[in-house]
Amino acid sequence: MAEETAITLPVLHLNGTGGQTLEEDYGHAWSVLHDFEDALQKVEFNRRDYYCHPDPQAWAKACEQRREIFDKINEIRAYLDAHREHIFENWKH
User: Fold this and answer.
1) 25 CB-near residues (< 8 Å, 6+ apart)
2) What tens digit of pLDDT does each residue of 36-80 get?
3) Are 9 and 2 in contact (CB under 8 A)?
4) Which of 9, 23, 35, 52 could be disulfide-bonded to 86 (CB atoms 3.0-4.6 Å)?
């Protein structure tokens, strides 16, 4: 299992990027990621597309690779969620 790394979060201050900008940008990125994940889940993924593959393990490999991609999406979501929560808690609306 990979070692987890703490997410380095920005310091919101007067000379930095505005809280509203960060809130909007991270919110937009989160929304796009959600749409991407939804679209990827809708992609037809079926064993019949692999049964005549020259590699007899192709279906198992494809399933594992797909799981790894969704794990990476979850890592990205956690990154965005951490930033959004941090900004919400530290930005004076």
Assistant:
1) none
2) 999 999 999 999 999 999 999 999 999 999 999 999 999 999 999
3) no
4) 9
List of residues 6+ apart from 39 with CB closer than 8 A: none
Residue with tokens 């049964």: 51
3-class state of residue 57 by DSSP: coil
Asked whether the CA dihedral 8, 12, 15, 18 is positive or negative, the reply is: positive
Place of tokens 């809708």: 42
Cα 48 from Cα 22, distance rounded (Å)? 45
Specify the residue for token string 């965005």.
80
Coil, strand or helix at 9:
coil
Rounded Cα distance between 80 and 67, Å, is 20
Return d(Cα 73, Cα 93) in angstroms, integer.
29
